[in-house]
Specification:
This protein is mainly β. 0% of the residues lie in helices and 44% in strands.
Length: 260
Amino acid sequence: MRTLPAVLSFFLLLPIQAQVLNGSFENGINGWNVYCPCQPYQLTGNASPGGGQYAVEVGILDFNCPCTIVETIYQPASWLQPGTWVLSAWIRNADPGNVPGAAVRLSEGPAFNSTILADAWSDAGVWTLVADTFIVTGSTDINSLQLSLIPDDGNQMAAGLFGAFDQVQIQQLIGTSIEDQVDVPVELFPNPAIDKLWIDLPETPRSLQLFDSQGRSVPVPQMVFNASRLEMDVEGLCSGPYVLRVATSKDLSTLRFVKQ
């Protein structure tokens, strides 16, 4: 017996994330525009789980560098087309617990004063996979779209801190029915879940999507992936059944759980 309606649809990832130029920063900062000449950034060998050798660290807002108030490191995203997409990245926040933290952002123009299509945040001081699903419509100003690395949220922080970014991706989603999916066995516990949910995975996830019992996309909660275990903070979710779609480089899994 199915616990969700038979008409519920899910999503498959299409392998189009390559349009994000150098999203893993293995080629330094190539492909990204540094708007502020005084914007501090540096490569680090402390890369995210399952990533390459390098990630990039971007300095937080510095009033001695006024242009960081209006812009940050970015690249154009005018290759996007109408449809449903997911923006994901691994982020390590500069100041752990400073909410909402560092982010990757897709906007119709400069990151801090334009319409935002997607915003994926992390306030954790460890590498955390974040994702945000968004829709590009016929009225979206596609030619102005840009993807930005935001090292801080504008809250007061100690000087000299860096937010870190790795494996920045944008992937398109297409609808498909549940009958078409072949699920790979993945351990998930506890179920029902109250505050934390743990998922044992064979490798680092590339992206995740979360849906409620009505098939509506839900923002993916705070997550930390360590070794082969993904920890998800589900305390803020409403009670009820959920479906989590987990994509790795080889498999796509459908996981069902209940939030108490």
